[in-house]
Amino acid sequence: MAIQLSDTSLLRTECYVDGKWVSAQSGKVFSVENPSTTAQVAACPEFDVADTEAAIVVAQNAFKTYRKTTPRARSKLLRRWYDLMMENVDDLARIITAENGKPLADAVTEVKYAASFLEWFSEEAPRIYGDTIQASNPDCRLVTIKEPVGVCGLIAPWNFPAAMITRKAGPALAAGCTTVIKAPAEAPFSALALAELAHRAGIPAGVVNVITALDNTPAVGLSMTTHPSIKKVSFTGSTPVGKLLMKQCSSTLKKLSFELGGNAPFIVFEDADLDVAVRGLVASKFRITGQTCVCANRILVHRSVYDAFIQKVLDVVRTFEIGDGLGEKTTHGPLIHGRAVAKPLAHLGPNFFDITVLADMKPGMKICTEETFGPVAAFFAFDTEQEAIDLANDSDVGLAGYFFSKNASRCWRVAEALEVGMVGVNVGAISDPAAPFGGVKQSGFGREGSKYGIDEFLTTKMIMTGIDPQ
């Protein structure tokens, strides 16, 4: 399948290691399909453990030099990478739509969002500060400095194949780290296009390395999580896989940040502006056909406004058009592949799944405990504020939560009561490069984006100096 690009050199079909485009040593490749048509987009190298370890060695060698670059120099590299992304928004978006299936307008939004992390961390790079501390011993002086943690293994998901890479690579490079990026097998071409732009931006060879694999993914993951030269692993994906990777990382006690599964509650109180709440729900629940970790999964509506709210949601849902991401009228594309279709079916073509609204759901149903990751909106009624909070917190995961109310006291009360890492109050879209992104409980730990994001790629070194008191 040909992708119509202004710059065809952005569609790379080899891995990027040490500033060069390389194939797997075995010569093996795997096919990537367009989820809208199931036609082949192109093929990518099937990297194995030997290929992965070679990339890690390259990154380790590059780190010896790159860590010594000035923060301002790193800032300029990231800014140039950002500029190149913005100059190629349309082509990058078409690549995303071809491999991921999301509507082109959503893909354009993702590219700009992805680029914003490079811009943000280009500005954070020169602002890595230490502290001066008053030592207990008057004959000593005490300071802290921040240093890059080292080679970072970055494992990205397919649902935001550009943004989930820049959200990790941006702070890593700003901190002075080098990277080995495992591109998602379902959608690897965005990562490879970003590598091409990193190359054009002048980022030194070995600082950004992008590898691909399908069948060898478990073995490649094991290599990245156990290799002693990798000092940090950042992973976005499911909780079960996160637990496995964490166990593997324990062998070398790597620094970790994991953004894992969610089961976001979305609460509509009786005093909410229902029209605002509907807009918030549509933004949260149905973005890229429900395939985001912060999607509203359990919609809790006060009984007094329950019927009215569902009717308003149905009025909007009936305007949706499901189809090929390149279709002019398409508002929602397919799920990523056939296996993804099975999960929303369990909770209730080739990969298309109709927008579904389920009313009168009850606690204990499968959708209460599992992340749907599809366009299924499940509604529950509640009677009291405490009941809503209890229902919302009845989950092993805690990534995001949303609620709608006009009562200022309630807004603070409920925001503080929700057991999640991120809360949207009267807003359904909470992603922002300035905002710390991450969860609690089994949704993981660590934060991406914001001023906190760069700390995940730094270590704090204490330096105590004795002085002669004369």
UniProtKB/TrEMBL annotation:
Alphabetical list of PROSITE patterns matching this protein: ALDEHYDE_DEHYDR_CYS (PS00070), ALDEHYDE_DEHYDR_GLU (PS00687)
GO cellular component, one term: cytoplasm
Keywords associated with the record: Oxidoreductase
GO biological process: carboxylic acid biosynthetic process; gamma-aminobutyric acid catabolic process
Active site: 259
SUPFAM superfamilies, alphabetized: ALDH-like
Pfam families xref list: Aldedh
GO molecular function, one term: aldehyde dehydrogenase [NAD(P)+] activity
Coiled coil: none
EC number: 1.2.1.24
Ranges of residues in domain Aldehyde dehydrogenase: 21-343, 351-463
Record PANTHER family: SUCCINATE-SEMIALDEHYDE DEHYDROGENASE, MITOCHONDRIAL
Protein name: Succinate-semialdehyde dehydrogenase, mitochondrial
Organism: Bionectria ochroleuca (Gliocladium roseum)
Organismal lineage: Eukaryota, Fungi, Dikarya, Ascomycota, Pezizomycotina
